[in-house]
Design brief:
The protein has a domain at about 60-99. It has 2 helices and 3 strands. It has helices at about 10-30, 45-55; strands spanning about 60-70, 75-85, 90-95. The chain has a 3-stranded antiparallel β-sheet with strand order 1-2-3, with no helix packed on it. The chain has about 100 residues and is an alpha+beta fold.
Length: about 100
């Protein structure tokens, strides 16, 4: 039984691929909007009051960090985890190179 293969012109494959890629990029892009963000502070003098107001609205906070320390005496990493629930619960975990 003889199998016949049809070879496709490589130029037409490249052209079709480029056309498909162009159409995909054109359709995937979002529209450009001219959005203006209004400043939340009118003056820098009002910042402390705004800060206090925002802080009082926070009910909980969770965070993770990795601190790298490099000095002549010590090089290492510390992993930090924190959970805070207002007003009186704080969990802080710090693990160094030795665990």
């Amino acid at each position: 039984m003889k199998h016949s293969r049809k070879f496709v012109n490589s130029k037409s494959v490249i052209t079709a691929s480029l056309l498909f890629s162009f159409l995909l990029m054109a359709c995937a892009g979002g529209g450009v909007r001219n959005l203006r963000v209004k400043p939340f502070l009118e003056t820098l003098d009002s910042w402390p009051e705004e800060y206090r107001s925002n802080f009082q609205q926070i009910r909980s906070f969770s965070g993770k960090a990795r601190l790298s320390i490099e000095s002549e005496q010590f090089n290492g990493n510390v992993s930090l985890k924190t959970n805070w629930v207002q007003p009186d619960k704080l969990y802080l975990q710090a693990e160094g190179p030795q665990g």
